[in-house]
Write a structure and sequence with these properties.
Layout lengths: L3 E4 L2 E4 L4 E7 L9 E6 L6 E6 L5 E3 L7 E6 L4 E6 L8 E9 L8 E4 L3 E6 L1
Length: 121
């Protein structure tokens, strides 16, 4: 089955940058949409960004202009470049694949294990 593995999280100062990576071992990465979600302590999982098979991108309003989702099909990898990070961006970030509903819904078929992003003030 499809497996997703996130990496690149860590501790960063406010205003800094991180790039998250999500490596897929499944056969459908090149043709299926991919997305990023995040979950802060005590909060529900929140949609962050998505990229379709034809490179259309979508973002939650709170990250527009700061985050960029991209894809390298040859490496079966999707990225989330995060700039101008704020303390409120602190969360566990999850990679997802194959939405079964609207991209902003948590109803995706495959999920990674998550990577922690902590932004200090």
């Amino acid at each position: 089955q499809v497996q997703l593995v996130e990496s690149g999280g860590g501790l960063v100062q406010a205003g800094g940058s991180l790039r998250l990576s999500c490596a897929s071992s499944g056969p459908t990465f090149n043709i299926n949409p991919m997305g990023w979600f995040r979950q802060a302590p005590g909060q529900e999982r929140e949609f962050v960004a998505a990229i379709t098979w034809n490179a259309r991108t979508y973002y939650v309003d709170s990250v527009k202009g700061r985050f960029t989702i991209s894809r390298e099909n040859a490496k079966n990898t999707v990225y989330l470049q995060m700039n101008s990070l704020k303390p409120e961006d602190t969360a566990v970030y999850y990679c997802a694949a194959d939405p079964r509903s609207d991209y902003t819904s948590v109803d995706w078929r495959f999920w990674g294990q998550g990577t922690q992003v902590t932004v200090s003030s």
